[in-house]
Amino acid sequence: MSEKTLTRMDLSEAVFREVGLSRNDSAQLVESVLQHVSDALVTGEQVKISSFGTFSVRQKTARVGRNPKTGEEVPIQPPPRSDLPPLAPHERPGRRRQ
What's the pLDDT tens digit per position in 14-40? Predict the structure, then answer.
């Protein structure tokens, strides 16, 4: 089974076709929207897009795991918040940041 991934490029292309903006303007629009969503999540806000979904960053709590060999219980600490990956665009060689 092949799973398709929707990318920034796919979104930009859809804006280009549906709205009629240039490819450059479409890409900038998509990046701007994603940056606003990312910024809101980083500051702890919840992002709600009507008829689509609600996004938030959840804080994990510590839990108890078990060593499968010995059966010994081991505490598992939650990952630090700073380990969350940013939603920033990938850098491409030759591409200038704005």
Answer: 999 999 999 999 999 999 999 999 889
Q: What is the pTM of this model?
A: 0.61
* Number of folded domains that form the chain: 1
CATH number at residue 69: 4.10.520.10
Closest CA to 31 of 93, 89, 91, 92: 89
Among candidates 6, 13, 47, 42, which has minimal Cα distance to 29? 13
> CA angle, corner 81, sides to 46 and 5, nearest 5?
65
What span, in angstroms and rounded, lies between the C-alpha atoms of 6 and 10?
6
Mean pLDDT, rounded, of the chain: 82
